[in-house]
Amino acid sequence: MPRGEVMSDTLHTGGCRCGGVRFEASAEPHHVSYCHCGDCRRATGAPVAAFVGFMSDEVRIEGRTLRGYENGTVTRSFCGTCGAPIAYTDSRIGDRIYFLLGAMDAPALYKPTLHAYVREQLPYLHMPDGLPRELKTSVPRPTE
Question: Which of 62, 51, 58 lies closest to 22 in space, CA to CA?
């Protein structure tokens, strides 16, 4: 997959609402996409989620309030103080981390390149952006 839309020599930074969790990535994102799956909806409280993916070894996360919730192979991180969702990892796809686009300090810089799990998209949500649409995941997993 082509690299994300953001091309710069600066760090990619973000964090939670209260400042208890901060993160930065030292390389360009490898993935920027929307996800319409029910699990992402429940985890974010939004009708669609958007993610910015980096290799884990390119990322530094700090925060005394960082918490995690495991659901099968997926671990979702969030701030234990303000509740803001931060990221997810999936043990089936290796050393990658996907930050919620809304947790990025400059979310407008990260333009999604596709939609995933459109078979679970809410029927009233219309996003006529012309992006490719995957029926399932946009990041292949061994069992899919």
Answer: 62
Chain centre to alpha carbon of residue 23 = 13
Q: Is residue 142 part of a domain?
A: no
Q: Residues 6 or more apart from 142 whose CB is under 8 A from it? A: 92
Given the structure tokens 């925060």, which residue do they identify? 63
Q: Which of 144, 58, 38 is nearest to 99 (CA)?
A: 58
Token digits for 43?
Answer: 């985890």
- Taking alpha carbons only, the member of 131, 137, 101 closest to residue 119 is 137
Q: Which domain holds residue 27?
A: 12-120
Reference 13, options 5, 25, 4; nearest CA is 25
Reported confidence tier of residue 5, pLDDT bands at 50, 70, 90: very low
Name the pLDDT band for 10 (thresholds 50, 70, 90): low
Q: Residue 135 falls within a domain, yes or no?
A: no
What is the number of structural domains in the chain?
A: 1
